Amino acid sequence: MDYSKFFSADVPSFLRSPVREIFRKVDLNAICSFAGGYPAACTFPMADIPALTGRVLDKYGTRALQYGATQGVPELREQIARRYGVPVSQVQITTSSQQGIDICSRILLDPGDIVLADNPVYLGALQSFRAYRADVREIPAGCDAPPSAPKFIYVIPDFNNPSGETMTLARRQEIAQLARELDCLIVEDSPYRELRYSGEPVTPIRELAPERTLQLGSFSKIFAPGFRLGWIIGPEPLLEQIFVCKQCLDLCPPVLDQYLATEFMASGLLDANLAKTIVEYRRRRDLMLSLLEKYMPAGVSWTHPEGGLFLWLTLPPAVDTVALYDKALAAGVAYVAGSFFYTDGSHRNTMRLNFSFIDEAKMEPGIRLLAGLVAEAAAPSARIY
Amino acid sequence: MDYSKFFSADVPSFLRSPVREIFRKVDLNAICSFAGGYPAACTFPMADIPALTGRVLDKYGTRALQYGATQGVPELREQIARRYGVPVSQVQITTSSQQGIDICSRILLDPGDIVLADNPVYLGALQSFRAYRADVREIPAGCDAPPSAPKFIYVIPDFNNPSGETMTLARRQEIAQLARELDCLIVEDSPYRELRYSGEPVTPIRELAPERTLQLGSFSKIFAPGFRLGWIIGPEPLLEQIFVCKQCLDLCPPVLDQYLATEFMASGLLDANLAKTIVEYRRRRDLMLSLLEKYMPAGVSWTHPEGGLFLWLTLPPAVDTVALYDKALAAGVAYVAGSFFYTDGSHRNTMRLNFSFIDEAKMEPGIRLLAGLVAEAAAPSARIY
């Protein structure tokens, strides 16, 4: 039976995530994987979960297992509002920050609408925008306006996925200015903002253009991704439409999980755990930077992220990371080819490396292996003759 | 600032749930509410949650808090597959069965596409179909084909929300036959199927037309709604597309919650709790039926559900349940006006009553109050003169 005739006109624009495809085929624990964007399991507050669960059941009773408000439970919205200095009415809890991206796309995008984004851009966002048949284009440099008005500008200003880079205050001001000139919205995706290992925090774009920014947050990196919880902070008229949309999507976010997050925040455990997580990830980032320095051949450069989970390699032009991928996997090392993050599939000599998930003991063999493959691909003749 | 110019062309078709709007304004615990579709809190396995949580953390370790597979964790898919006698490859876990409805709509519907549905129809489904600008029409009686081919037929064959009715086997066979003739799919929404209080189970439509049925299930009524977990059973080519779509929606369902559901099923607790839930709800259904018999004036009729959470009242034509609503709320009783479940807003002399959520002690005063309001609305002159 041919099912393709039943599918909506959006379906041919659905992209499979090459990252998730890797996860389907390969046991990441069996190889040296720099591929996913997984947090380190050692940062999960495993030991706190039983006590948190007990406290939630005592304090909230059967409310913890019942349907909840579509906006999220008031107690968690209150915690988010307090932490980020916004009114509760400007906070919507989402079932993951990926849902935050999807719900913004759902209420804003029609086929052909323009989204301006960094290039390379976060794959989950690109998937979502493309699934609504949006036209994803690169944000112009400086304050130059593009020929047609976009619906919104999408950015990850802090420790960008995939590049690892942080936007300067001047660039954030340009983005806010550009949005005002174009009269469009800004979707500021901030899943990593709290994971800063060096340097000083930069003002969020939301504070530079509060009237037109939807800021997305995530519990995946500051609590645990298994809870699928995130939030949106934004102007009330936009949140009101998101509220109506969310009724159709899943009625409300997971309720027990929301109360666990509430108590995790209210008790101070989040801040204590975050401090430990930052120490852990700073060490891993520094280790990876030193290993790249030690093993990578000449002609390879990389970003030096001040936070987040990723860094970005630019290899000699002769290296094709898409072509190299199967060989690398067979050799026992995984990465994500950089071209997957480019709207046009270009930049095949780049790759994204994750430094949060891999066991530290595997980092050196992994980078050494990868460096060998890169060196070979950069100058294959050296080995043949 | 006017935000309406930013919204997609779908947004004007978004419907607010009148049920969820009630929840925003009124504390349902303070009145006699027959309005929501909430399960009784006494059916939640509160006492089991700490031990289940401990077992999950012991057994699955940090996997319970990490990102999971987009299709759902294999252990839960296995449990569902075993319970319903289908291969694991035909099971997708969803973040609520509302997401099941939304994801089917997302991959199948373009603006103007026809969906055939019962009339009255579940409001959450109507919201979702309308949000994709589908044309929702009533399923023709018998096997008569409608003038244009629909994308799918949507039904709740067991203890329908809102009507409380169960579809006969003959009618299910007609639906399967109709779908084959029209070459369309069937979305069989089965959130209440396991809640049968009397009569014999009827074959699911999925078994009558497995090649073209997507069957939606829910943990909300057999575990607890706060977990936001459901599932879809269907042909693999359709699930493959749902898998790709779900990556954009939220990457994966909540992981700790999925493992809690896995252990709840595997340990036999689900079946034990379900047996108690059925006894509880049967008593409430019987009580409500006897109270309606006792208090409702002549000219009022109602369905006699064999399961589920709802029954449906048809009042004398003079009674307008939309107009009566504010008066009822002020008097301390809530229901959902039946016309909200009709695609054309007709049948204003009907209402849906929920018998699962309300305290049993409030049922008699609630029905007596409601009966008085109905009697007055049916013959207002009797009180004026």
Structure description:
The structure is a homodimer of 385-residue chains. Chain A has 385 residues and is α/β, with parallel strands linked by helices. Chain A has 13 helices and 13 strands. Chain A has helices at residues 18-25, 49-60, 74-84, 97-108, 123-131, 169-182, 205-208, 236-250, 255-266, 269-295, 321-331, 360-378, 381-384; strands spanning 32-33, 91-94, 114-117, 135-138, 152-155, 185-189, 213-218, 230-233, 301-302, 310-314, 333-334, 336-337, 350-354. In chain A, strands 2-8-7-6-5-3-4 form a 7-stranded mixed β-sheet, sandwiched between helices. A 4-stranded antiparallel β-sheet of chain A has the order 9-10-13-12. Chain A has a two-stranded parallel ribbon with strand order 1-11. The longest helix of chain A is centred in the last third of the chain and has 27 residues, at 269-295. Chain A is globular, with a radius of gyration of 21 Å. Chain A starts with 17 loop residues before the first helix and ends with a helix. The model of chain A has no long low-confidence stretch (mean pLDDT 94).
